[in-house]
Design brief:
Layout (H helix, E strand, L loop, with lengths): L7 E3 L58 E2 L3 E3 L2 E10 L4 E5 L2 E13 L7 E5 L6 E5 L12 E3 L7 E3 L1 E4 L14 E5 L5 E3 L2 E3 L4 E5 L8 E2 L2 E3 L6 E3 L12 E2 L6 E4 L8 E4 L6 E4 L2 E3 L4 E4 L4 E4 L4 E4 L2 E5 L6 E5 L12 E4 L6 E3 L1 E4 L14 E4 L5 E3 L2 E3 L4 E4 L11 E3 L5 E2 L8
Parallel strand pairs: 1-3, 2-4, 3-5, 4-6, 5-7, 6-8, 6-9, 7-10, 8-11, 9-12, 10-13, 11-14, 12-15, 13-16, 14-17, 15-18, 17-19, 18-20, 20-22, 21-24, 22-25, 23-26, 24-27, 25-28, 26-29, 27-30, 28-31, 29-32, 30-33, 31-34, 32-35, 34-36, 35-37
Protein name: Right handed beta helix region
Keywords: Signal
């Protein structure tokens, strides 16, 4: 439980901040009935302050600098705020209100909960008055500043209606130095209705603990690397309908370190997902892969181990498993394999193409696109351009012949393969 503390509110910053998006921040203390401590704002914006709460804020200027350490609850905005490197610690909450522009100095970052505590960053823009994080440089460019990072204990963090631009420099907030504008490592309350653009690297990374409770309606544009990268444990928290402006975008799934171990929907996006390495749905996973989803694999396999994955495509919007290569060919990736499952796998209206290299397709390295038990229900699906069989099982279901096979030989690998008409 977060301890109670006196809150300092820093309102009425009526500065004319530069806003490259065209939105101007303005406002004042609305007199909501609470007792508010109002601090005059400061002058020395070219130095990095120290101190806790409002004590480290500069004074005498219309565009104050955030302190190096926020250790007591602090509210800033609306108007202009400058920032270099700020850590939110000791269970404190930094709240940034609608209409605030945060001008980030070169190499700057904002880190909630650097020591794994329950500190929080609450950024509450609105549709008409977003909060803006932007470069403080006279001529802004991607990579001018580093990142906003939500640490593992910062589950009460919330970022809505916020614009992030010019970030993405390798971030010194943590030893791994992630190359992204925003990194979330806690099940934060929300990351929604935000815009992330002009990053020198990725836009947002959702780490192992980053299963955000509401992740919806975000927009991405002009980022140097794929705008969104998610750990498998955070994948199901990403709602469909994220907006990607660039035609070559993908959503990266980093399959290296963990598994999908929850129930939910793997939502379709307007761009493909790209699986980096081997991906597993674990025993606690119960996943519906939504119609219209495109899954690119970079050479390895997708395994469902003692879990559930329902491939829920439709005739108009099949689920596509395909190569991540620019010039795809048969054998670019391994397989979709179901092992130790407790119920019949369902694969409805899927497309399997360019599979069959055997990598990660069980320890036996089977060269087939789909591997699983004879109880698999495979309907309305297409298999094409494969380096091996379409389906491998100990026993094959003759009903699998009702699917579509284009240039595949053999169709099945099993003890007594059926002869399809």
């Amino acid at each position: 439980m977060r301890r109670m503390r006196a809150a300092t509110t820093f309102l009425g910053l009526l500065a004319a901040c530069g806003d490259s998006s065209g939105a101007e921040g303005s406002g004042s203390d609305s007199g909501s009935g609470t007792t508010t401590t109002t601090t005059e704002v400061g002058s020395t914006t070219d130095t990095v302050p120290t101190g806790s709460g409002s004590e480290g804020m500069t004074t005498g200027d219309t565009c104050p600098v955030l302190p190096e350490t926020v250790a007591d609850d602090l509210t800033v905005g609306p108007g202009c705020v400058r920032m270099y490197r700020t850590d939110i610690v000791d269970g404190a909450t930094l709240t940034i209100v609608a209409g605030t522009t945060v001008q980030v100095e070169a190499g700057g970052f904002l880190h909630a909960g650097p020591y794994g505590d329950n500190s929080a960053l609450v950024v509450e823009g609105t549709e008409t008055e977003p909060v803006i994080f932007q470069s403080a440089a006279a001529s802004p460019a991607p990579g001018d500043w580093q990142c906003v990072r939500i640490g593992t204990g910062s589950a009460d963090s919330k970022i809505v209606w916020t614009v992030f631009e010019h970030g993405g420099q390798a971030c010194d907030a943590v030893g791994s130095r992630p190359e992204t504008t925003v990194e979330v490592n806690a099940p934060a309350l929300a990351f929604s209705f935000n815009t992330v653009r002009a990053s020198a690297s990725q836009g947002v990374i959702l780490g192992d603990g980053g299963a955000v409770r509401e992740f919806r309606d975000n927009s991405f544009a002009d980022n140097a690397r794929p705008s969104l990268r998610v750990a498998p444990a955070a994948l199901l928290s990403v709602a469909g309908g994220q907006v990607f402006a660039d035609a070559d975008e993908v959503v990266e799934i980093d399959g290296t370190f963990d598994e999908i171990g929850a129930a939910g929907t793997w939502s379709a996006q307007s761009v493909p997902y790209r699986v980096l390495g081997y991906l597993q749905v674990g025993p606690d996973g119960d996943v519906e892969l939504a119609a219209g989803t495109v899954v690119q694999l970079d050479g390895n396999s997708l395994e469902v181990f003692a879990g559930k994955l329902h491939v829920a495509g439709t005739a108009d919007a099949p689920v596509v498993f395909t190569s991540a290569e620019d010039a795809p060919q048969a054998g670019d990736w391994g397989c979709l394999v179901y092992s130790s499952v407790t119920s019949p796998p369902q694969i409805d209206h899927a497309v399997f193409e360019y599979a069959g290299n055997g990598l990660g397709c069980t320890g036996a390295a089977y060269t087939a696109a789909l591997v699983g038990p004879e109880t698999m229900q495979v309907t309305g699906s297409t298999f094409r351009e494969l380096a091996g069989a379409a389906i491998r099982s100990s026993t094959c279901d003759p009903g699998w012949c009702d699917n579509t096979f284009e240039g595949v030989d053999p169709l099945f690998e099993c003890a007594d393969p059926p002869v399809c008409p």
